[in-house]
Amino acid sequence: MKAFAALALMLVLIGLPSHLFAQDKKQKPAKTETMNCWVSMSCEKCVANIEKNIPFEKGVTDLKVDLPTKMVAITYKPNKTNPEKLEKAIKKLGYKTEIIPDKKKE
User: Fold this and answer.
1) pLDDT in tens, 48-104
2) pTM here?
3) Domain ranges, residue 49
4) Which of 32, 36, 44, 90 has its CA 20 to 30 A from that of 83?
């Protein structure tokens, strides 16, 4: 019985330090930015092509495509990608594009 109690106490003490010293790391949400660009899309197939491919670009967290205005808004993590890389990805799909500067940053 004493051996069982000693073994149980030893197991508790082995697991205890990691629990005591573990820091409560709260994950900060990663900072994101949004870029707006005009894209030479002309139909729903173009929209589907952009919606199918651009979300898989590294760092992209959200995508909104508006066919009537031909505007695409891409939310991304600036530590993973940048507007130039995202514009290049759209051009690689066969579209002309132009980044629209954010008026807040000017």
Assistant:
1) 999 999 999 999 999 999 999 999 999 999 999 999 999 999 999 999 999 998 776
2) 0.69
3) 33-100
4) 44
